[in-house]
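Methods — Computational structure assignment.
A single polypeptide chain was analysed. Its primary sequence is given first, followed by the predicted tertiary structure written as structure tokens.
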Amino acid sequence: MGEIELGAAAIGSVFYMTFMMLGIGYSVGGQIIVARRRGQNREAEIGKAVEHAFYFLILFAAIVISLLNLFLPEIFNLLISSENIYNQGIDYTYIRIWGLIFAFTNYTFRGFYIGIARTKIITITTAAMAIVNIFFDYTLIFGNWGFPETGVRGAALASVIAEFAAVVTFILFTLKTIDYKKYRLFQFQKLEFNLFFKVLNISSPVMMQNFLSFAGWLFFFLFVEKMGEQPLAISNIIRSIYIIMLIPIMGYSFSANSLVSYAMGKGSPDEVKQVIRKAVVLCLGSVAIIVGVLAMIPRTILSIFTDNIEIIENSVPVLYVICGTSFLIGLGFVLFNSVSGTGNTKAALIIEALIFVAYVVLTYFLAIVWDTQIAEVWAVEFFYGGTIALSSWLFLRFAKWNKKAI
């Protein structure tokens, strides 16, 4: 649609994802407990842990949606300098935030399925979500096939509908293919505060580290917005491609997290290093395939997102930058999620918090103080990936993590 719409969607979606990552963090805490109970052959306790994660996340979604409906204009007014970006961003985000209810439900299911090592459903629900999202993007953004033309608001609504479709798919798949009675799912047992706080104790550091991770990205886009509408539009395109590159990275990272917890649950901490080593090799191999495609046909890939030749040409150097950073990010995320999988989530939070501060400061100097080009600003991802990889490796190498009980 144009630079302004690209920029507004970038700010709105990263703002939304920052809050969504809090919910993902809580679901990862539940996932760690699910995998640990599976390793301990205490499968009847799994459903209770999953349902307690669901209780918390639905309440949390309701609180976030209520607060943002009250204060979103004031927040965006403080963060955004362009009036055009502000107006379109508000339109997008007011609708997008309703997706938190469905997104948090989806991640509760994901935590369960990754924890029991039945991840095929994640592919199915993601495919369903993608198909629904593309259909409603095409019809609602441009007003095709008799639908109203709603622009960026249509993009937001399409995402919300897609997340709802994923919830329906998860529920149907679970009822049809899983022995949910074995895990005591869908019993909606009464709240047990001991279990609730046990999940919260494991999850809260993961919630905060995920929040900091995407808050760093939010600051990144806010700083880029000060550089102008074209750098922000370029960054939104690159962000979309970057998220595709993160798919195998997050997949192997969450798998490493679950398998590390499972190995410790069955009393085999020696298997942890083998799990991590395999996850790293598979992750980097998958990243190499995506990078190879991007490096061979960068302009063809970029033309999917825009027909503006100037934006495409100015995006090519940035695309090459993320091709390089993705290897460090892949290594760092697998190692970092392995730290969380040991149950040492507070240590992972400390690592993330220190890197977050340095990342935001460095991005500020690159984008605002030193007035560098957008490709040089994106190079800050080398710093993030390298430091999180090194910090996590040092922890796994020297800390006494193998005695952590949950």
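Note: DSSP finds 15 helices and no strands in the chain.
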